[in-house]
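Write out a sequence, fold above all:
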Amino acid sequence: MKILMVCLGNICRSPLAQGVMEQKIKKYNLTWEVDSAGTSGYHDGEKPDARAIKVAKDKGLSIEKQISRKITKEDLYYYNLICVMDAQNYNEVKRFSQLHQTEANIELLLNLVYPGQNRQVPDPYYDGKFEEVYNMLDIALEKFVASQLSVH
């Protein structure tokens, strides 16, 4: 499985989600691939937010080598699953996908484990709640991977 994690700027939520998923891939010895991108391109070429790097490091993850980038048309074709953090960015990726006439599998990340509830991963950029976001992602991605493993 090839998964793309998407948020607005690709410096807080999606880099954390990528780091958490990389940890799950390693933990379960999976051949999956994961990357992250943003819908805005505001931070193209930048490392993740220092607060995201710190929370990840505190949890044993290394995300400081990630580089922010904007989602591309090629991403829509390459990834089996595009996990978006919130409704605004979900709508943006859906619009982008329709513009390029793709059948990309785009989901709100938390709908993978809480189907139909449209829960959002809040942006910690302004309120600093990086640890809460990390915990939310860790629980959700653990449940998602477990559900995939039980299917196969």
